[in-house]
Write a structure and sequence with these properties.
Blueprint: H1 4-24, H2 28-53, H3 57-87
Length: 100
């Protein structure tokens, strides 16, 4: 059996990679993928604690997080496609739709 610490370390590593991707990248699709990576690391933590404690509450929370991630993926990709059609780029620095 794999100890809980290994799951938590892997989850922390995935979350850190996601945060670094959000903070350093300027491509909207890569930022979007980094946010998804952070959500999946939270799911891994919830499942690990659920299995460790022998309670199904964490696994039920994972279904809610997956539902929110699916909605975020649909809306986020629609926004990215709309921005690409208007500006012909997915670079976050070049998108200034909210400026006057």
């Amino acid at each position: 059996m794999i100890p809980l610490n290994f799951y938590l370390a892997l989850s922390a590593l995935l979350f850190t990679i996601g945060v670094v991707g959000v903070l350093t990248r300027r491509n909207a699709i890569i930022v979007f993928m980094s946010i998804e990576l952070m959500l999946n690391s939270v799911n891994l933590t919830l499942v690990a604690f659920s299995a460790f404690l022998g309670d199904a509450t964490g696994q039920m929370l994972v279904f809610f997080v997956i539902t929110i991630a699916a909605a975020e993926a649909a809306i986020g990709l629609a926004i990215i496609i709309a921005l690409f059609r208007n500006k012909q780029t997915v670079n976050i620095d070049e998108i200034n739709l909210l400026k006057w």
